[in-house]
Write a structure and sequence with these properties.
The protein has 12 helices and 21 strands. It is an alpha/beta fold and 465 residues long. The chain has 3 domains: 4-39; 73-279, Rossmann fold, CATH 3.40.50; 283-456, 2-Layer Sandwich (Ribosomal Protein S5, domain 2), CATH 3.30.230. The structure holds thymidine-5'-diphosphate and magnesium ion (MG). Residues 106-107, 129, 175 line the site of magnesium ion (MG).
Length: 465
């Protein structure tokens, strides 16, 4: 009797064994060995058939006009914010992986989106984590429109593939890829081998029948997408759904996108009856009340600018080495800014603890936030309140000089739209070349001390108390 066996392949060096090891005996890497069904590797029935592609010969790329028309074929996900992150909608036949912490709202987002999409095309929602009854309960709570959404509560890969082939839906949602399992593999659902096999089988079918697949993926404790890295290489788009579980808004980001720009940001708010999109996000991240230690920056996420409040708290330390905690900003960046302020502004920050937070749980990675961070720190250190309606934009160099940042016009326009009156930004940002007139009061500074004089009205370099 022939028995389906598994082999174990090291993801780092490709070595094959018959047995599972925690460490590859060939290259010495830990946790790199993955189970794979022999049938999927070399059985005849699964070998790639040359005629599976209609025309395998190389073809001339299409004229630009035809390509533009094709772009219109994208399916709308039902949410403008979701479409923006996807690069203008869902591309037919594409594979999208949506990752996120448990309870963040992945199932809610996809069920709502599926319900809206099902008004126009056939959509299959495979719930591998919840029973059909549970999904129906959620659906009732969401009060979505009546649509022909097909619901399948199943965990077996084979049955899901069968259903996909039978229904040939335009869009299929798998919630989640970690809960599916292939009976030919001995690994538990969610194990690296299972995730890899299930996703590649789904991908093959989806590309063949031009079904767009949305896969929900779990995130590990370290915040990485659970499963093999190949999963991220395999799919066309990787999105992460994040946000503070205790705050109501959620951010959808593109980490990888073969059909659009990455670093696009979609913003949603979780309410009692589901997720709604936030079209004017700056309002969430702004407090509008001036206080010591608060500064407003305008950050750019993809094509979108957001005005965001930063808060700093500086207090004398009781520890041998001062504490530095940053939420939403890289701690190393904060260290660097504190060092620049200490050296060039003569502040005794090494004897103070420093806590920094970005309002609303947003992560700000770009250096354009430097000037805002520095001003928030000084505002808290000296107990000075920034005049209302001021935004700060600029990168801080190690010598205390300010460097211009990109998309300045877009940032100033956003600040103006939100009713800010003053902006402090680096000299040489190209104010003269801007196409539209800026009504904000603009202050161009060449270094940090000039910027602080403009923003706070204090001359720290000549005032050492
Ligand atoms: P869920 O979509 O199940 O998260 P995930 O699939 O990412 O694990 O979201 C669950 C959370 O969302 C849960 O804590 C309750 C909350 N929620 C609402 O606040 N409003 C709603 O309408 C729904 C459906 C869920
Ligand atoms: Mg879920």
């Amino acid at each position: 009797m022939s028995r389906l066996a598994s082999i174990y392949i090291c993801q780092s060096c490709g070595a094959q064994t018959r047995q599972f090891f925690g460490r590859c005996s060939n290259c010495g890497d830990w946790n790199s060995i993955v189970e794979q069904a022999v049938s999927s590797v070399n059985s005849k029935s699964n070998q790639r058939k040359p005629h599976s592609f209609k025309d395998p010969r190389p073809q001339l790329s299409e004229p630009i006009g035809a390509l533009k028309e094709k772009a219109l074929d994208r399916l709308t996900s039902g949410y403008g914010e979701f479409d923006r992150v996807l690069g203008g909608g869902l591309v037919p036949g594409s594979l999208v992986l949506v990752g996120g912490d448990p309870g963040i709202g992945k199932s809610t987002l996809l069920l709502q989106s599926a319900t809206t999409m099902a008004l126009q095309q056939s959509v299959l929602y495979v719930s591998a984590e919840e029973s059909a009854q549970q999904v129906r309960l959620r659906w009732k709570r969401l009060q979505g429109p009546e649509s022909n959404l097909q619901l399948l509560a199943e965990t077996s890969l084979e049955l899901v593939l069968q259903e996909l082939e039978a229904l040939q839906p335009a869009v299929a949602i798998i919630d989640s890829i970690q809960a599916l399992h292939d009976e030919h593999l001995s690994g538990a659902p969610g194990s690296v081998g299972q995730v890899r096999e299930c996703s590649s089988a789904l991908q093959r079918l989806a590309k063949q029948q031009n079904t767009s697949l949305l896969l929900v993926g779990h995130v590990t404790k370290e915040g990485m997408l659970a499963g093999p890295k190949v999963l991220e290489h395999l799919v066309d788009v990787v999105l992460t759904f994040e946000g503070d579980r205790y705050a109501s808004h959620r951010l959808l980001r593109a980490v990888k996108n073969r059909y659009g720009a990455t670093h696009e940001l979609g913003i949603f708010e979780m309410q009692g009856n589901g997720l709604i999109e936030v079209t004017n996000p700056s309002e969430i991240f702004l407090n509008r009340k001036s206080a010591a230690g608060v500064a407003t920056i305008v950050a750019c996420e993809g094509n979108r600018s957001l005005a965001v409040d930063l808060q700093a708290l500086i207090s004398a330390t009781t520890y041998a080495s001062p504490r530095r905690t940053a939420t939403g900003v890289e701690t190393n960046r904060l260290h660097q800014i504190l060092a620049v302020l200490e050296k060039h502004m003569g502040l005794a920050l090494s004897r103070h603890d420093c806590y920094l937070a970005v309002a609303g749980g947003l992560e700000v990675e770009e250096p354009a936030a430097d000037l805002g961070i520095a001003t928030a720190v000084i505002s808290s250190y000296r107990d000075l309140i920034l005049p209302e309606g001021t935004v700060l934009i600029g990168e801080l160099g190690l010598g205390g000089q300010l460097r211009p940042v990109g998309q300045i016009q877009q940032r100033l326009q956003e600040a103006e739209r939100l009713g800010f009156q003053r902006a402090v930004f680096p000299k040489g940002s190209g104010l003269e070349q801007m196409q539209t007139e800026v009504k904000l009061q603009c202050f161009e500074a060449s270094n940090i001390s000039e910027a602080l004089v403009m923003a706070l009205g204090v001359d720290l370099e000549n005032d050492q108390n």
